[in-house]
Amino acid sequence: MITVTLPLRIVSTLNVREHWSKRHKRAQAHRKAALVVPKAELPVTVKLTRIGLKTLDGDNLQGGLKALRDGIADRLGVDDADPRVTWEYAQERGEYAVRVEISPRTVD
Prior knowledge:
By secondary structure, the chain is of the alpha+beta class. It has one domain (2-104): CATH 3.30.1330. Helix content is 30%, strand content 29%. It is built from three helices and four strands; from the N terminus they run βαβααββ. It has helices at 20-33, 58-64, 66-76, and strands at residues 2-6, 44-52, 85-93, 97-104. It has a four-stranded mixed β-sheet with strand order 1-4-2-3, with no helix packed on it. Helix 1 packs parallel to helix 3. The chain starts with a strand and ends with a strand.
């Protein structure tokens, strides 16, 4: 298993009211942060754990992690809808960060 912790603050992008350029800069930063995630042989399960002071509901959690998910998919050389990659989401309380865990998966 590969585990990387990224110093990112994931916010509820579905509820935040901000200028489009600020949202764009955050998305670029999240995609760029994915460059430190090592490549892995497919198929894999990628678990994204948001660490923050408060928890988000499910759709806001996935929405907030979308740019990071896209960046990790780019790093793996696939589209984020590729069936060889299973995405899981979790949350924990603590100082802002995201833990990325990539584990091998057997083909069903």
